[in-house]
Amino acid sequence: MTTRGSALNPSAAASTGTSTVDASTIVLGIETSCDETAAAVVMGGTDVLSSVVASQLDEHARFGGVVPEIASRAHVEILPQVVAESLERANIDVSRVDAVAATVGPGLVGALLVGVSAAKATALALNVPFVGVNHLEAHLYAALLDEPNARFPMLFVLVSGGHTLLVEMTSHDSYRVIGQTIDDAAGEAFDKVARFLGLSYPGGPAIDRAATRGRDTAVVLPRAMLNDGLDVSFSGLKTAVINYVRANPGVSSEDVAASFQRAVVDVLVHKTRRAARQINANTIALGGGVAANSLLRSEMTKAGEADGISVVLPSREMCTDNAAMIASAGWYRLRRGEVTALDAGANPNLKLGAGQR
Ligand code: KG4
Ligand code: ZN
Questions:
Q1: Is the confidence at residue 197, as pLDDT, over 50?
Q2: N- or C-end of the chain: fewer Cβ atoms within 10 A?
Q3: In whole angstroms, what separates CA 26 from the centre of its chain?
Q4: Predicted confidence (pLDDT) per residue in 98-108, tens digit
Q5: How far is the CA of 265 from the centre of ligand 1 (A)?
Q6: Which residues, in sequence order, are CB contacts of 144 under 8 Å at separation 6+?
Q7: Which has the closest alpha carbon to 98: 128, 60, 61, 120?
Q8: What's the mean pLDDT when you consider all of the chain?
Q9: How distant, in Å, are the alpha carbons of 76, 201, 323 from that of 52?
Q10: Which residue's alpha carbon is at the smallest distance from atom 16 of ligand 1?
């Protein structure tokens, strides 16, 4: 492996924070927080030269959810190959890499440590900085890949398998959570309802597909806490679906899927509009796996048009976990001179806005 005396050598960047980070700076990103093993090469924060995602779906599907030990082992086995492929597809030698970024949290600790260790070792071998990235923050940068000049104040709506957050952002790295779920995350609700309906895993895409063949007015379902602050709740909705199907076993799963999806989207759009008004948002940015949902995308876009607020959606493949968003978030951190020490570990409970050094 050739190494390169970079302007961004770890100690210099860490101590001064003034090294040049610009449109030509290349970051190798690594993501292993859950069940996707991903690596990507991104130049200048937004130019995705490659993005490789190896999903472990098949390995977890028969358990109906992610098994942490299986995830860690699979990351160990496949990560070197995934990184090599990301460099190959980007058509660059590893010596061109200016920094290595990896997800340090939140996520499964064993899974996180695989990516963090690999990233730190690579950074050390290349004599370039290591940048620890918050997975939640990275989901935002997935939206900004196509819209880097989106204006603040921004309402970041993060809807994933583990989180449902409404976040006020007044600038890069200034986060204030103003709403969240008090029970299930949006993606978790999709997954649980899909599992109950006997649809495939993961549930979100399966419900999205089934809903296209169903009537969203077929089953009357609750919209919890609609006029009550900015928090959301999905656990009562999930229970209402289960109770309805038990009482009406002949109901079509397509109708249930469509009605459930409509209820989730109604709540998310309603709370988003309310939050956006409250913070005078210029932009609403969506992130996380549920942002791939067809109805949520179209209804959010419509709401933005009606309210005169620009809505920024990541491409569908950038909604779910990937490493391009990690490399991008890493570039923004690097530009602020934020380099992570090589003795830093992973934090499975990392919060948005918490320091990653
Ligand atoms: O962001 P992500 O890949 O992983 C986490 O960080 O959690 O999100 C995964 C979640 C899963 O719950 C999955 O069912 C959901 O995103 N999801 C969807 C869709 N695609 C993925 N939910 C609704 N509609 C979709 N099209
Ligand atoms: Zn995620």
A1: yes
A2: N
A3: 21
A4: 999 999 999 99
A5: 14
A6: 46, 150, 285, 312, 328
A7: 128
A8: 92
A9: 16, 21, 7
A10: 289
Check pocket membership of 320 for ligand 1, CB cut-off 6 A.
yes
Q: Kindly list the structural domains of the chain, giving each domain's residue range(s) and its CATH number in brackets, ordered by start.
A: 10-142+320-335 (3.30.420.40), 151-313 (3.30.420.40)
Q: What's the CA-to-centroid distance between 121 and ligand 1, angstroms?
A: 30
- Give Cα 352 distance to the centre of its chain: 12
* Confidence (pLDDT) at 158: 98
Q: pLDDT, tens digit, for every residue of 2-34? A: 333 344 444 434 433 446 999 999 999 999 999
Q: How many whole angstroms separate alpha carbon 97 and alpha carbon 127?
A: 10
Which numbered atom of ligand 1 lies nearest the CA of 139? Answer: 1
Protein residue with its CA nearest to atom 3 in ligand 1: 320
Q: How much is the average pLDDT of 335-346?
A: 96
The CA distance from 77 to 80, in Å, is 7
What is residue 60's predicted lDDT score, i.e. its pLDDT? Answer: 76
Q: What are the C-alpha distances in Å from 183 to residues 17, 164, 165, 239, 265?
A: 40, 10, 12, 12, 17
105 lines ligand 1 (CB under 6 A): no
